[in-house]
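Hey, resending since the last one bounced:
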Amino acid sequence: MEHVRGAPCHPQTGGKIERWHQTLKNRILLEHYLLPGHLEAQIEAFVEHYNHQRYHESLQNLTPADVYLGRGQTILLERERIKRQTIQQRRLLHQRQAA
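The structure tokens again:
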């Protein structure tokens, strides 16, 4: 993750990072950490999950890593292909049952 500077006095930019901090804080406060290394490991695990595993609705249900690495369009096209194929199979099944 890299530092991104937002426009000053722009509430949406500030709100995004504040929401990210709130999500991180809520995850961190679930446990007690006896050593600083344990806390650092938990933060690192959260960032890994947030960027590589958690789907974001604002990114069309892609992970930030998918979008950043340019895999987003390929994934969306594959999802659309699967959706069309599923609809076609359901129509065939419905037609067979109706006949």
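The two ends are 57 Å apart (CA to CA).

Sorry for the duplicate.
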